[in-house]
Amino acid sequence: MKDTGTEYKKEFLSRFEGSEIFKQQQAAFNNVFGKTRWQVLSAGRRKKPRSLAVFENNGTYSVSLPLERGDNIYGFLLLSMLKSKPENKMVALLNSFTNTIIEEISKEIELSKLYDVIRPRAIALSTIHTIHRLIGSTLDINELLPRIARLALQVLRAEHIEIYMKDKDTSKLNCRTAVDYTKTKDLFKISKKCNEHAKKVVSTARSILKKDLLAVPLIEQEYILGAVVVRDRIDKKNFSIFDQEILNTLAEQAMVAIKNAQLYKEQQDITIGSIKSLASLLDLKLPGAYTHSNLFVELILALGRGMELSGSQMRDLHYAALLPDLGKVFVPEYILKKSTPLNSKERGLIKKHTKKAVEIMQHLIGLKSSIPIILHHHERHDGKGYPYRLKGDKIPVGARIMAVADAFEAMMRKRPHCQRYTLKKGVSEIKSQSGKQFDPSTVDAFMRIFNDGRLNKLFSEYKHELKKVF
Amino acid sequence: MSLKKFFKSDIHKKIIIFFHQNPSCIDTPRGVATWINYERPKVSKALKELSKHKILNLHKSATATGYSYTIEKAIIKEINNLLNNT
Predict the structure, then answer these.
(1) With contacts defined as CB-CB under 8 Å, which chain B residues touch A153?
(2) Cβ contact, residue pair B66, A134, below 8 Å
(3) What CATH number did the domain enclosing A157 receive?
(4) What is the pLDDT of residues A142-189, one digit of tens each?
(5) What whole-number distance in Å separates Cα of residue B76 and Cα of residue B16?
(6) Contact at 8 Å (CB) between A261 and A144?
(7) Is A310 in contact with B62 (Cβ distance < 8 A)?
(8) A128 found inside a domain
(9) Which of A123, A133, A147 is facing B25, going by the closest CB pair?
């Protein structure tokens, strides 16, 4: 065999000896020549090896065949101890068989080499793709940054990471997330050191590669928006240029996701700002008639979190909570201002406000998914609500939440024809309506907020708003 | 289930060996199923069990689930010992 490395030779021999074709041919030759011995010889340094040779040695015959493919001679196959001189046609046949074997073995070796080279790259590519999917679906920047940090630590097999972002207004570099797997280090000391490196990376736009530290910039087009600093590999080895390349790739991926999240946040802020402006405008017309208190909004969001709503459900709930009674603009002002009980015609007009809100909101694409919450927030769990008398789970979860918050706020608020409830009485009233007016799981979430003191805190914070009479 | 017990199951063992040999890898159940040449539902189940026992880390988002190798040195050492002894 041509000596191209011990491993290679071992593999060649093992494949040669294990080859099914070889076993079959060996059996065929044994039938013709009797029990023979096969050897694989090194090609050595012969410049021009003989292609095929038959020779005699102490009364036995041997056949030597080159193991060649293209211009390469891998070695020689020696068939020895033959009792008689093989005929030329048998030697030709042997040559043909050997060529078949070497062809098969060469293909196997090439495939094996290809596998060894391609597989780790395919795994790395799949990792990058998975990371892309894991961070690409997150639009909440507060959720995204820790996720990026954890994934980067995982890929680099490091113990500590910090992500720094430049403040939009002040350009000051802030550590937005820090993860330490060991939790044994003094985070303050690490931060101080990491911070210096982050500043350097941001000011120079160049990565830093040290034995125990790696820092790369977060670049969006030509702007440097921050830096990622990673420290200490878990196997205590030094960071390499390969690690730097990986972190750079991750930083580029992260930057796309961060930018998406920032744009999404901006869009959300614009939508919320527009709704608030509309609410302020309506508040000027008849204060408190079309809008709700901050207690109402905060309670709805707390209930949404308590019921583990998804990010998009929380967004829709938030939008709906800002202007649920928009449809009341179609209700004559004298009805809204009325301090005496409403007659049936007036109640009928009031009940139309949810459908009227839909008429206004359907033109606002960004608010479309909030429409069902507003439309159904006066439905009751027992099916006695309006406008469609929906029952139980048929009522959208956001509307079920809003129904509880709406009723609670109404009880807590000062109204001309109703007595204001105490917090305890309001909570008790909500509890008593579980399974009747309200969805039991929403009431359970409400009670959890009350029992852990959050409701009291919200009430104390916003009770001044509830004193306003309208 | 202890590590030794996981090593008695072929699919769990193959997954552990795959991540031990490729510790930087983060992949979905479909990806892991491809690398170890097993059916995806069986791989998903085994991955969940391994992550429950902290041998793998679970990364979950709204649209994707990824698994990666533990970063706990003690677990890695134990796996290394088991692999050397088998």
Answers:
(1) 71
(2) yes
(3) 3.30.450.40
(4) 889 999 999 999 999 999 999 999 888 888 888 888 888 776 555 656
(5) 10
(6) yes
(7) yes
(8) no
(9) A123
